[in-house]
């Protein structure tokens, strides 16, 4: 019993045990559950619905999944040429859903669950998939193979599924060749950051409670031996006090009462420091720069936007990019030598001046051609007649520095 519970809690059991849709119940003694979940050893998994109620988690999800979902994914052949319309990534992955939505949902599952699934809906003439749809991780479970060795499962016609287990989608078995499984190099956020997310939820609930029913900032108490009067007298005194404070900034307290300040400020009632710390913990867990979540942790006043995006790509998005590219380049999806690539040209797009200088250097060293530069700028390629009307860009000495300035001349 305890072994099964430990596998469910830590994620070391089978996928069916970990899947939210799997039927898996363990009778845990209340004292053990209290000791583990409230005593501070391991926090249980938080649900995705609860987690997305935390603005920091929602922002992290949008920053990671939304950014990667907006980038185009293409297939390149062994000569690095883009291939269109032949394989899965040559066009629309799911004819009914934009690619950006499919990829965003896939990355979201990798972030929250550590695993994502696609169901292949059509194969091409070359027996490679050409269409697929995203399947929520909550709808998928895996039943391990029992009583069948790997060599037997490869040759057994009665077992046409995966040698490691059978995949179930909505409770129905699906052959292994019809599913694509993505695995994240990072542990699932909802399980291993459950304590930080749940703490943020509790702090938000407490702050909302104080907003709905704020604590008094001060109280009146009668002096010793003074009759406080009945409830009507107390209400009349408080109404008079509030009315006087609305008309004057300075108040007066009679000799029969003591004015006692409670000491709670509006900032303290909103638990600002504790909530900022909770956001910082979520940023650490998600691998996001805290400043992207509104938490200032440095004295940095300026940083190049392109450099910030590159840092995000290198230290946060890179692991999910590798997981997607590596899986979509495997031999069950693309032929040998073909690869899936996520294009970052638009994401890392710098300012116009820097781009033009980069293109100039790239042409000089042979890294870019005129057509490639216009493709990168989303401009139509020049026709032969247009190219003949535009002379090369000679360099002339600059008048305001050592940098040569290009001059464009029209040929007659």
What does this structure look like?
The longest helix has 24 residues, at 305-328. This protein has 3 domains: 43-214 and 266-349, Substrate Binding Domain Of Dnak, Chain:A, Domain 2 (Up-down Bundle); 218-261; 352-406, no CATH class. The model is unreliable at 1-26 and 34-40 (pLDDT under 50). The termini are far apart. It has 412 residues and is α+β, with helices and mostly antiparallel strands. The chain is elongated and about 100 Å long. A hairpin with a 2-residue loop joins strand 6 and strand 7. The protein has a 3-stranded antiparallel sheet. Helices cover 42% and strands 14% of the residues. It has 16 helices and 13 strands.
What's the level 1 CATH class of the largest domain?
Mainly Alpha
Report the biggest beta sheet as strand number plus sense, adding barrel if it closes: 3 strands, antiparallel
Which class do the helix and strand fractions yield? alpha+beta
When the domains are counted, the total is 3
Mean pLDDT: 76
Query: How do the strands of the widest beta sheet line up side by side?
Result: 2-1-11
Shape: elongated
Please trace the helix and strand order, writing H or E for each element. Answer: HHHHHEEHEEEHEEEHHEHEHHHEHHHEE
CATH architecture of the largest domain: Up-down Bundle
CATH topology of the largest domain: Substrate Binding Domain Of Dnak, Chain:A, Domain 2
Strand content: 5-15%
Helix content: 40-55%
Q: Over the alpha carbons, how many angstroms does the gyration radius reach? A: 31 Å
Uncertain segments? 1-26, 34-40
Report the span from N to C terminus: 88 Å
The total beta strand count reads 13
Q: Give me the number of helical elements.
A: 16
